[in-house]
Design a protein that fits this description.
By secondary structure, the protein is α/β, with parallel strands linked by helices. It folds into two domains: about 170 residues, 3-Layer(aba) Sandwich (D-Maltodextrin-Binding Protein, domain 2), CATH 3.40.190.10; about 130 residues, D-Maltodextrin-Binding Protein, domain 2. The chain has eleven helices and ten strands. Strands 1, 2, 3, 4, 5, 6, 7, 8, 9 and 10 form a ten-stranded mixed beta sheet that branches. α5 links the parallel β5 and β6. α9 packs across α11. The radius of gyration is 21 Å and the shape is globular.
Length: about 350
């Protein structure tokens, strides 16, 4: 299977990129986050997280307080095909970390759904539960399509192949028992162009609302949102763990009233062999109060990255370094004592 992320940098590359012994600075070390297509939510969010937690030698805000990641670590965001591809790349060690929806990660750990062919992805561990994503169904502004049921016999893009949008949109069509005439799997940018040109009738977009691409299309009168609601949504939520009823609020896009839909949570995942102390430092930096202004000023849904979502992490394994941090801040219960371990004399 083709990997969407460039291989060659394993989890926490410990070889120094530059060394400054005269200045007594730590060596630079690289750490990647596999994200998704540029027009989606994952790439800008990956770039923001990278800025928040990176700790290049000599950066003033990192030296003044413990609000950055491990000294010398430079975090970067990499584009990819999306969630499924990110999970596979993290599991096999061809990328350090990645973003993926919680339901996709749960499928990977269990070896079901999109991972039935590749089998259980046993090396995946979770660093953080980051933010919710809303499924947004776009059709032409002049289209008669008013519901998911109206997609029957139409031309529909599900998003990038092997992306979270592809996985969840497929589940939506199944739950509503809808069979489009043609299914397309293209990036959001291409899907938007195809909709403008009348070459498809609708496309699914999974990400934070508002999104720049959708705001532009809605604002120009080229597209409108269609609700995902009713009995079909109820069947979908009952079938797919990790999905919940949600809505896009009034005013999220110009002239748009509230739109019923579904949402899921995005996780930051890493391989199980990542050093616990390094993962601890990265997670601590992400939630450090000193970094809160950077998240508040970031693109939607960066504002949703906050402590308090760790309950949803329990369906998939936490990385030990992350678990240690959550225990220390009271988000997880303390580690119970081992009754078979003899106390030191």
């Amino acid at each position: 299977m083709n990997r969407p992320v460039k291989a060659g940098i394993l989890v926490f590359c410990l070889l120094p990129l530059t060394a400054s012994p005269a200045q007594n600075l730590p060596p630079r070390r690289s750490f990647e986050i596999a994200t998704g297509p540029v027009a989606g939510t994952y790439f800008p969010m990956g770039e923001l997280i990278a800025r928040v937690v990176s700790h290049p030698p000599g950066l003033a805000r990192c030296e003044k307080s413990a609000q950055c990641g491990p000294p010398g670590v430079i975090v970067s965001a990499k584009t990819s095909d999306g969630a499924v591809a990110n999970v596979l790349a993290v599991n096999d060690g061809s990328v350090a970390s990645g973003l993926a929806q919680g339901n996709v990660v749960a499928d990977a750990v269990a070896g079901r759904g999109a991972f039935r062919k590749d089998g259980r992805q046993t090396h995946i561990r979770v660093m953080a539960d980051l933010f919710p994503e809303s499924m947004q169904l776009l059709v032409s502004a002049r289209s008669p399509i008013k519901s998911v049921a109206d997609l029957k016999g139409k031309r529909v893009s599900l998003g990038n192949a092997n992306s979270g949008s592809d996985v969840i949109a497929s589940e939506i069509l199944a739950a509503y028992e809808v069979h489009p005439r043609k299914i397309v799997r293209e990036t959001y940018e291409i899907s938007g162009g195809l909709l403008r040109e009348g070459k498809i009738d609708a496309f699914f977009f999974l990400g934070g609302a508002p999104n720049v691409l959708i705001a532009d299309m809605v604002g120009r009168g080229q597209a409108k949102l269609v609700p995902i609601d009713g009995p079909g949504r109820n069947r979908l939520i009952a079938k797919v763990k990790g999905l919940s009823a949600d809505l896009i609020p009034t005013g999220a896009y110009r002239g748009t009233k509230r739109v019923e839909t579904i949402s899921c949570h995005t996780l930051w995942i890493v391989k199980d062999t990542a050093p616990p102390d390094a993962v601890y430092d990265l997670v601590r930096a992400l939630y450090h109060p000193g970094n809160r202004p950077m998240l508040e000023q970031g693109p939607s849904p960066a504002q949703e990255i906050k402590l308090g979502e760790t309950a949803s992490l329990l369906s998939v394994p936490l990385h030990p370094g992350a678990a240690q941090f959550y225990r220390e801040v009271g988000q997880l219960p303390p580690t119970p004592p081992n009754p078979q371990k003899k106390p030191r004399k």
